[in-house]
Structures are given as structure tokens and as C-alpha cells.
Amino acid sequence: MSIPFWGLLLQTVFILSITIFSFIRSFVFDNYTVYIFAFFDLFIGLASALCGLYGLISKTRQLLSLIILLFGLLICFFFIVAYLLPEAGMPPAIPWLYPE
Asked: Structure pTM?
């Protein structure tokens, strides 16, 4: 299995975690902490972007590698928007710029 397919597998895990298994995310957010899935999402985004970048550099399945790279960057952007930015006057989920 080549490296771009590992990135595709990571992105599939991400999509499944926010769609089918969202009840697990909600349970963890309510009862424990937001940091577990926040860093899980960041890890998946960075790892899949690196897999896509590796595929582009090594010239293996370039179109698939480009799609994986772009979607990995979108996952990283999702991390920033969902966890680090405030929304409608509410503080962000991870207070990095606005410490309490």
C-alpha cells in the first residue's frame, strides 16, 4: 500500500468520526475534554497532508496525491476554525489567544 493511500485512509477515518461516530465525539466533549478530538483532528490533517505531499514529490498517483494534500489542508483549516476561533461572542474551545 503506497503512502497516498495511507493519507486517504486517514481522511476516511476523519470523515467517519464526524459523521457516523459523532455520538462518540459528543460524549467525549460533554464528559471529558475537547483536547482529545482536537488534537486527533490536527494529527489526521497534518499526517494526510504530509502523505499527499510525499506522493506529489515522489510522483506516485499525482492527482490522488494532490487531492489528498488539499483535503488534508482543509482538515487543518477545520481545526483552526472549529477549535481556535471564537464564535458569536463565545470564547474558543481551546483558549490559545484569549486566555481565561
From this structure: 0.85
